[in-house]
Amino acid sequence: xxxxxxxxxxxxxxxxxxxxxxxxxxxxxxxxxxxxxxxxxxxxxxxxxxxxxxxxxxxxxxxxxxxxxxxxxxxxxxxxxxxxxxxxxxxxxxxxxxxxxxxxxxxxxxxxxxxxxxxxxxxxxxxxxxxxxxxxxxxxxxxxxxxxxxxxxxxxxxxxxxxxxxxxxxxxxxxxxxxxxxxxxxxxxxxxxxxxxxxxxxxxxxxxxxxxxxxxxxxxxxxxxxxxxxxxxxxxxx
Length: 238
What we know:
This protein is mainly alpha-helical. The protein has helices spanning 3-14, 23-35, 39-50, 54-64, 71-83, 87-98, 108-119, 124-136, 144-156, 160-172, 180-192, 196-208, 217-235. It has 3 domains: 1-85, no CATH class; 96-193, Serine Threonine Protein Phosphatase 5, Tetratricopeptide repeat (Alpha Horseshoe), CATH 1.25.40.10; 194-238. Helix 4 packs antiparallel against helix 5.
């Protein structure tokens, strides 16, 4: 256990019962429980969750997520935190419902309302997940317009993957009117956010040129090199 976490737990022990810890304190203890397997940190997290602090409920729920025997506890804790207004807990609950694990069938229909709760509070990844579910007809009826709506929300919140998918939607007229200019603008934005597929597609576009811009082999070469570097760096993180 790190000195920081030990100090946090010591300070918590000195606090009067029901004194609310800060989010940073809770998350520091949760990290020790998750990464270091610190039993004392997990006990402290359980104590805070039992006192009704939403961040502690969320962090304990996330700690339980990979433990099949604690799945029901994870669902309950995340729901408590989400209903108390914790946006990240709502997103994580959607992820838990949607993701297949041994012995449990994924339930994207159950995930939808939690993703929506988080997306309506400006959670970019939750908005992206709503778009993907609507586009693929998972848990809800397939609807390109609904998918485009949530892609727009996610893109406006800075989600590069959503910018790229929305660019394709405008290019193909899928759920939105066909608009080559808007498609290019979104593709450029996704590339500026260092999203490798967008950088690569933009490189291929400027390499040949189109109605929106002339052929530019030098820029295409720079973009392709950048895309390869981003992919290489991503692989090296695993």
